[in-house]
Amino acid sequence: MNSEYDYLFKLLVIGDSGVGKSCLLLRFADNSFSESYISTIGVDFKIRTVDLDSKTVKLQIWDTAGQERFRTIISSYYRGAHGIIVVYDVTDQNSFNDVKHWFQEIDRFASEGVVKLLVGNKSDMTDKKVVEYNVAKEFADSMGIQFLETSAKESTNVEQAFLTMAREIKDKMTTANEGGEEKAALNLKGSSVNANSGGCC
């Protein structure tokens, strides 16, 4: 086991272009925010280490492009993910409507038992909000997954979203490893980044 961490979890952030996936990741990993909008090209990732229940957990978080032309590239990243966060924009009804499609992608490409979380971003834009909390919560409940509204701009629930997912994965792995020695979740050797990115999408 790597002495620097007890667990290494790979998280994937998916959703339509422009919902704020990169902004959420920037806020969580670097505690920064940018108003500029530049679409992610392909896939990018950031790493942050957190402490959970006296365990050191390293999170490798992959930020994906929302555009249709990158779907084939992104589908290959689903398989190794321990957790997938589906993001929509609370001010964009279409991005919420597309959530069902993203969950279909997870069912198609991800490993069985992957932890899922629904996130409604841009909750600070209350005057432009079109997707009500109760509607999204009802949908998440029907899927048997957790749901949070976040604001990358105001740092609302961003930390909670990623830590909620990390804790759920850790609890799942601890249960699976009971009776045996706990092992690091993932070996990073051989992993690579296919493309870089910039800005908030």
UniProtKB/TrEMBL annotation:
<keyword id="KW-0636">Prenylation</keyword>
<keyword id="KW-0653">Protein transport</keyword>
<dbReference type="InterPro" id="IPR005225">
    <property type="entry name" value="Small_GTP-bd"/>
</dbReference>
<dbReference type="GO" id="GO:0003924">
    <property type="term" value="F:GTPase activity"/>
</dbReference>
<protein>
    <recommendedName>
        <fullName>GTP-binding protein ypt1</fullName>
    </recommendedName>
</protein>
<keyword id="KW-0449">Lipoprotein</keyword>
<dbReference type="GO" id="GO:0015031">
    <property type="term" value="P:protein transport"/>
</dbReference>
<dbReference type="GO" id="GO:0005525">
    <property type="term" value="F:GTP binding"/>
</dbReference>
<dbReference type="Pfam" id="PF00071">
    <property type="entry name" value="Ras"/>
</dbReference>
<keyword id="KW-0813">Transport</keyword>
<comment type="similarity">
    <text>Belongs to the small GTPase superfamily. Rab family.</text>
</comment>
<dbReference type="GO" id="GO:0034045">
    <property type="term" value="C:phagophore assembly site membrane"/>
</dbReference>
<dbReference type="InterPro" id="IPR050227">
    <property type="entry name" value="Rab"/>
</dbReference>
<dbReference type="InterPro" id="IPR027417">
    <property type="entry name" value="P-loop_NTPase"/>
</dbReference>
<keyword id="KW-0547">Nucleotide-binding</keyword>
<keyword id="KW-0342">GTP-binding</keyword>
<dbReference type="InterPro" id="IPR001806">
    <property type="entry name" value="Small_GTPase"/>
</dbReference>
<dbReference type="InterPro" id="IPR057289">
    <property type="entry name" value="Rab1/Ypt1"/>
</dbReference>
